[in-house]
């Protein structure tokens, strides 16, 4: 069909249909230019115009160019459509056509289509090139199908097409995508054995795999070797970003920032992924001001923050207990037309949930669905964790029902969160029932599951049940971890099964799990419960030798062992060690120190200790303070007892009837009837009614011990006190 020409006076040559594309030759040239610039819509318009021209003749190079362009833009359906269209025009696909189309399907993750295209290519007697094989290996590998990728690589070699460095890198990448990190390292060793010279891409994959295997030191060695002066492969932006991720995972934020600065110093321009890696490191540790600074730096450098950038900033506010600011980031994101994703919503749910705002977290969950996003298992885990923090039992079951209604299959982490939530709510039976459901649905429990169940059972004094989970672990082949060992030791300790505890402790060390302070503390409690004071003292020496610093709980257990084992002087040595290492003092620690002072008659030290107690008094239980008052009183140190009492009163600790009873008992024992009556007055003023026995005791004392001179005075004061109480009540 011919189109009318343009007006004669226009001075500008236009096509016969008025499009301005010119002749077919010009159109083909224009497609090439636009393709290089990635202007896909203009390319499509020019190509459609060419096809409408008279005497149009289909050309392989143009179809191949268009298929490649569609592949770059992830428009696989359009690329496949052109493949069939060119054949209708009697234009036979060649090796380059198949390469472009296999690449398009690989980019889209459609590796089976890519395999089928290779079969079609072979049936058409078109010999695959090295690029064809590389594209097909990449199609399989990028989808995580590393076995199929290796099969294609084998066929490639069998057909006489030798692999090049690109092939080797694609195979390494296939292992990486398939999470076969150890296999990737083994393949790299084979490459070195075959004298294949790696490039920066190779090393980037190796660094990633080493990091995932927890071999961060080896990953850093590779990175440092790349930075040496004579190194053939210099690190690029991807390399530096990978090392930043490594330090972020290790919690070494300063090193993460230092690597970022080193990248700038070497003249490399960070991309958005690099900035996001730095922001992510700050976000995890709740360093919101630093994260905001990086966010602003992205904008200053002429880049646009992406959804990951906004999510990192939002997460940093959530982790720094600023859920309101996290919501502001979410709203700003929408205002700037950056579409949030599921990860963003989950971060906002966590921002509210981790700060105890369960209702707001549930609201975001519902908003997420209203906005057209499907919650995933991470959303459920986050809500379950929020339920656990809020302590509201009913919400755990509601969240589980909501997950089931939406077809969300719970994974191990989700079950662990739910079981932990039930246990935190003291609902052990429901936790066990959910564990049984987990087994029935063939979701494999891990060491975290058993740590939660064993420690939870111990907390609720269900020690035999705690031990019973060991058999389940053995049956499932779940390895014992340090946390599980510590929980089992606690269970044996609480039951007084010291032999079993010793056996488990020994097994723990033989398994290569270095006992931590929790494990040592459990053993100390076991020895204390069985009155094996000497073994407890020996264990303390072992702790020192292994470089394990005792915490407050361990120190109180050790002090008890020293006191009961006849070595109270060691309590003071441990007290000095606690001061040196800045271990916080607790009520139990103070009680054991006072006990040692009592045994050794170290009353000056005990009196000095009262002064030291000031910062700790508000956190001490009234039961422990009463015990300490009694300790002073029964030793006849009434002045010290009263000094401690005054400190307790100043700290704002709520005094009860038992406290006053302790004071009165010991005041009367030393004949201080004046202070006794004064304490009765304090009780009355404090709204605590003295018992009848307290009055009887002082009257009896007056009759028996006060003498004729003071007995009437005691009765007079008591009568006045009683009248005062009556007038108050009326």
UniProtKB/TrEMBL annotation:
SUPFAM superfamilies attached to this UniProt entry: TPR-like
Segments forming domain PROP1-like PPR: 425-581
Highest taxon in the source lineage: Eukaryota
Region described as Disordered: spans on this chain: 1-21
PROSITE patterns: PPR
Pfam families noted in UniProt: PPR (PF01535), PPR_2 (PF13041), PPR_3 (PF13812), PPR_long (PF17177)
Keywords tagged on the record: Repeat
InterPro entries: Mito_RNA-Proc/Resp, PPR_rpt, PROP1-like_PPR_dom, TPR-like_helical_dom_sf
Family: Belongs to the PPR family. P subfamily.
Protein name: PROP1-like PPR domain-containing protein
Native source species: Brassica carinata
Lineage per the UniProt record: Eukaryota, Viridiplantae, Streptophyta, Embryophyta, Tracheophyta
């Amino acid at each position: 069909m011919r189109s009318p020409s343009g007006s004669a006076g226009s001075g500008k040559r236009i096509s016969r249909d008025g499009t301005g594309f010119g002749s077919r030759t010009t159109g083909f040239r224009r497609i090439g230019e636009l393709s290089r610039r990635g202007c896909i819509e203009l390319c499509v318009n020019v190509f459609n115009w060419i096809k409408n021209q008279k005497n149009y003749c289909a050309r392989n190079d143009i179809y191949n160019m268009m298929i490649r362009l569609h592949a770059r833009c992830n428009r696989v359906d359009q690329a496949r459509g052109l493949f069939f269209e060119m054949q209708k025009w009697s234009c036979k696909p060649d090796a380059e056509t198949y390469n472009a189309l296999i690449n398009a399907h690989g980019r889209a993750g459609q590796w089976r289509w890519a395999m089928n295209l290779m079969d079609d290519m072979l049936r058409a007697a078109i010999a695959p090139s090295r690029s064809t094989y590389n594209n097909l290996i990449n199609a399989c590998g990028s989808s995580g199908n590393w076995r199929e990728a290796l099969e294609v690589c084998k066929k490639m070699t069998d057909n006489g097409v030798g692999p090049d460095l690109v092939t080797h890198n694609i195979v390494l990448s296939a292992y990486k995508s398939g999470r076969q990190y150890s296999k990737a390292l083994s393949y790299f060793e084979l490459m070195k054995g075959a004298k294949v010279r790696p490039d920066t891409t190779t090393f980037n994959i190796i660094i990633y795999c080493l990091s995932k295997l927890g071999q961060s030191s080896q990953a850093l060695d590779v990175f440092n070797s790349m930075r040496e002066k004579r190194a053939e492969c210099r690190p690029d932006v991807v390399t530096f970003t990978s090392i930043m991720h490594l330090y972020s995972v290790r919690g070494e934020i300063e090193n993460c920032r230092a690597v970022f600065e080193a990248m700038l110093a070497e003249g490399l321009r960070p991309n958005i992924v690099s900035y996001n890696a730095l922001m992510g490191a700050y976000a995890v540790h709740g360093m919101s001001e630093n994260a905001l600074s990086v966010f602003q730096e992205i904008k200053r450098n002429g880049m646009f923050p992406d959804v990951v950038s906004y999510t990192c900033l939002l997460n940093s506010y959530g982790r720094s207990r600023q859920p309101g600011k996290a919501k502001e980031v979410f709203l700003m994101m929408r205002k700037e037309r950056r579409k949030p994703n599921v990860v963003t919503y989950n971060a906002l749910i966590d921002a509210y949930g981790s700060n105890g705002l369960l209702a707001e977290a549930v609201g975001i969950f519902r908003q997420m669905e209203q906005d057209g996003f499907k919650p995933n298992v991470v959303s459920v885990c986050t809500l379950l964790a929020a339920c656990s923090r809020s302590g509201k039992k009913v919400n755990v079951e509601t969240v589980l029902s909501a997950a089931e209604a939406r077809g969300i299959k719970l994974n191990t982490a989700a079950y662990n969160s739910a079981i932990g939530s039930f246990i935190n709510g003291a609902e052990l039976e429901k936790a066990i029932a959910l564990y049984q459901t987990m087994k029935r649905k063939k979701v494999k429990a891990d060491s975290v599951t058993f740590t939660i169940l064993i420690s939870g059972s111990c907390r609720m004094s269900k020690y035999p049940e705690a031990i019973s989970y060991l058999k389940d672990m053995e049956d499932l082949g779940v390895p014992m971890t340090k946390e599980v060992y510590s929980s089992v030791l606690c269970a044996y300790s609480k039951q007084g099964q010291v032999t079993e505890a010793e056996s488990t402790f020994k097994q723990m060390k033989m398994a290569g799990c270095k006992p931590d302070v929790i494990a040592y503390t459990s053993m100390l409690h076991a020895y204390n419960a069985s009155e094996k004071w000497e073994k407890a003292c020996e264990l303390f020496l072992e702790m020192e030798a292994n470089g394990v610093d005792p915490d407050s709980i361990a120190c109180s257990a050790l002090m008890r062992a020293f006191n009961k084992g006849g070595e109270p002087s060691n309590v003071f040595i441990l007290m000095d060690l606690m001061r040196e290492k800045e271990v916080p003092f607790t009520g139990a620690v103070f009680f054991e120190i006072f006990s040692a002072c009592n045994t050794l008659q170290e009353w000056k030290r005990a009196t000095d200790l009262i002064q030291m107690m000031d910062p700790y008094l508000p956190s001490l239980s009234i039961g422990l303070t009463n015990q300490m008052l009694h300790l002073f009183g029964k030793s006849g140190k009434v002045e010290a007892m009263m000094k401690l009492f005054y400190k307790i009163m100043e700290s704002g600790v709520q005094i009860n009837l038992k406290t006053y009873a302790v004071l009165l008992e010991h005041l009367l024992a030393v004949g201080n009837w004046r202070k006794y009556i004064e304490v009765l007055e304090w009780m009355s003023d404090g709204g605590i009614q003295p018992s009848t026995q307290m009055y009887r005791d002082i009257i009896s004392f007056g009759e028996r011990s006060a003498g004729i001179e003071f007995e009437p005075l005691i009765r007079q004061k008591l009568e006045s006190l009683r009248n005062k109480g009556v007038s108050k009540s009326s």
